[in-house]
Amino acid sequence: MDSKILLAHGSGGRLSHNLIKDFIQLFRNQILEKMDDSAVFDLNGRVAFTTDSYVVNPIFFPGGDIGQLAVCGTINDLSMCGATPLYISLALIIEEGLPMSVLKQITSSIQTVVKDTGVKVVTGDTKVVNQGSADKLFINTAGIGLISEGIDISGTNAKPGDKIILSGAIGDHGIAVMAQREGLRFKILVKSDCAPLNTLVADMLKVSEKIHCLRDPTRGGLATTLNELTMQSKVGINIEEEKVPVHESVRAACEFLGFDPLYVANEGKLVAIVPARNAEKILKAMQQNLYGKESTIIGEVVAEHPGIVTMKTILGTSRIVDMLSGELLPRIC
Amino acid sequence: MDSKILLAHGSGGRLSHNLIKDFIQLFRNQILEKMDDSAVFDLNGRVAFTTDSYVVNPIFFPGGDIGQLAVCGTINDLSMCGATPLYISLALIIEEGLPMSVLKQITSSIQTVVKDTGVKVVTGDTKVVNQGSADKLFINTAGIGLISEGIDISGTNAKPGDKIILSGAIGDHGIAVMAQREGLRFKILVKSDCAPLNTLVADMLKVSEKIHCLRDPTRGGLATTLNELTMQSKVGINIEEEKVPVHESVRAACEFLGFDPLYVANEGKLVAIVPARNAEKILKAMQQNLYGKESTIIGEVVAEHPGIVTMKTILGTSRIVDMLSGELLPRIC
Q1: What is d(CA A271, CA A285) in angstroms, rounded to the nearest whole number?
Q2: Percent of chain A scoring above 70 in pLDDT
Q3: Using one digit for the tens of pLDDT, what is the confidence trace for A216-229?
Q4: What's the rounded Cα separation, in Å, for the pair A264 and A259?
Q5: Of A30, A215, B155, B160, which has the most beta carbons under 10 Å away?
Q6: What is the pLDDT of residue A326?
Q7: What pLDDT, on the 0 to 100 scale, is given for residue B295?
Q8: Chain A residues touching B44 at Cβ < 8 A
Q9: By the CB < 8 Å criterion, does B132 face chain A?
């Protein structure tokens, strides 16, 4: 029989301890095994530090689950600063009654990402709330990474003339979660693109340290990310609609649902803003990485219209691409 | 009219941005203001890294609120490794419909702790879930601190002969939250002891670096913390009931409710295990700190009965103090 999570699993007593021991077994490493109030390790240099909570609904979707999403998301936030992800924390808020088998499935998919990427889970926390006070499972991950000397990647660094590279087709994650939640069936199953982008960034940095900005277009989609970058760097951005890859299945789903793929969330894509002279070699390096095969240059940075993103449409006209202003898809990550 | 949190505040679009701008204004510092995917700063040495989620119900209680609790809790977890707390992350999961005034009150009490302790909020995240999918507000904080050379504090370091110091009376936080939640009124209002313990630990380390273990007895209370330490260090612990301070109001409330104060949560207390020869000077330093006035030696570490805590009762008998085994008070932190 499948046992369930009880309130006592979060009380700090014996059941909490047994649960924590299972986690330590799963994520085994010397730092975690000490079981003190904090993880302790040596660190020297420029550090990147980030956090994200994950509340995606449903917790399982085609192409991933909330556990994989939480670890990949934090790995990606560190990677977007050019940092090598090293250590992550894992904090669970569990609704009383969650089947233990579900928790095991989620933590095992976290273990897979951890093994594949070499990051270490070094500290954690488990809280349990009464039935109805949370929805199954929320996960927070915080992460620490190290940035090598010579790397200076920030949303404030875009310069007029820079090229904008997108690492692949947009909208997969948002549509996959949405379809699963609403029980929609499309001709072709849309899978989330949820993936760790640390090796993609490492491959890019190998061919050129001169990358100005990196960002993963998650909530709010590509449109919102590009708008953020124009505001942070006080520049304009022009992109071309026909250059932005969108999988046929996602395009069809978006048309059916009345969504614009530019605003739909991604979890395994990045936008890079790079000096024009390095754009081709960075693009080639990206295309050779598993997670960058469909990389393409979608536009450029301009001095005109700072804070504004414009797009040359397929019809040849030009329009402003605004930031997401309302609510498109709640609980997408 | 009091506006409310909408799902769109968590969508990554314009409302999210406005909310984040308010936070940046509140917690102003150069690292946070960069608004990149990760905070970036230099760090050299032994690092402590910790995380905790807070789901306390109700979110306001006598002596504190969920915001103060979240920041103090992470400051304390870092302090318990002898680290100076430097940077924290702040991740909010908000239930749709939360009044904006409530959020402002919580973030303003976070701001107060941050100012008083000198830690910096350098990165954050905001998610909003539909009404009924969370209970008002959950907060995750992760923290980073630096440990000076020569300090080696761990739950594994207790040695037979060491003295056990408790920094004050136990049970205040648990009873304060419980009474507020259940609408109980006692003769004397019990206030949570929620407090940042970084200066207390700093004052202790000034008089002696030779502190073996530090731990704050939160969930599961003093009894659970002492049991953890016996297991980690493979030693026994003997304490004396009459030496353990319990405020009269808490004792009365516990009697009424059928609780043992040894198992009730604290949020501003610590247990220190120190070599006998340094115990008196460390105790004096503690008693001179605002948060250690009632500090007292409650017992000692022994080689006998490893993994077991015994207590000499007021009646003169001796009994085993076990770890909390069931659920005492859900959602206490």
Answers
A1: 14
A2: 100
A3: 999 999 999 999 99
A4: 8
A5: A215
A6: 74
A7: 98
A8: 43-45
A9: yes
State the pLDDT confidence band at A13, using cuts at 50, 70 and 90: confident
Residues 140-159 of A with CB under 8 A from B: 140, 142-145, 147, 154-156
How far is the CA of B195 from the CAs of B48, B114, B264, B269, in angstroms? 20, 12, 16, 8
Of B7, B142, B331, the CB nearest to A129: B331
Q: How confident is the model at residue A330 (pLDDT cuts 50, 70, 90)?
A: confident
The closest alpha carbon to B243, from B203, B206, B283, B215, belongs to B283
Six token digits for residue A325? 């202003």
Q: What residues in A contact B155, CB-CB < 8 Å?
A: 34-36
Q: How far is B314 from chain A (nearest CA, A)?
A: 25
Tokens of B289: 């700190």
Residue contact A134–B138, C-beta within 8 A:
yes
Q: Which two tokens stand for residue A259?
A: 């969504």
Q: Which chain A residues contact residue B12 at CB under 8 A?
A: 218-221, 224, 265, 324
A156 closest CB neighbour out of B34, B128, B154: B34
How much of chain A, in percent, has pLDDT values that exceed 90? 91
pTM (global) more than 0.95? yes
pLDDT in tens, B245-269: 999 999 999 999 999 999 999 999 9
The residue ranges of chain B whose pLDDT is under 50 are none
In this structure, what DSSP letter does residue A4 have? B
Taking alpha carbons only, the member of A104, A254, A237 closest to residue A179 is A254
Q: At what angle do helices B14-27 and B100-117 cross, to 10 degrees?
A: 30
H/E stretch holding B106: helix B100-117
- CA A31, CA A20: separation in Å to the nearest integer? 14
SS3 A141: strand
Edge to edge, what strands does the sheet with A318-320 contain?
A213-215, A271-274, A163-166, A296-302, A236-240, A309-312, A318-320
pLDDT at position B144, please? 98
Give the ranges where A183-275 is alpha helix by DSSP (H).
Answer: 198-207, 221-233, 248-257
Contact B51, A142 (CB under 8 A): yes
Residue A188 vs residues A170, A181, A193, A269, B291: alpha-carbon distances, Å: 16, 16, 15, 21, 62
Domains parsed from chain A with CATH numbers:
34-147 (3.30.1330.10), 163-320 (3.90.650.10)
- Torsion A121-A111-A8-B323 (CA) sign: negative
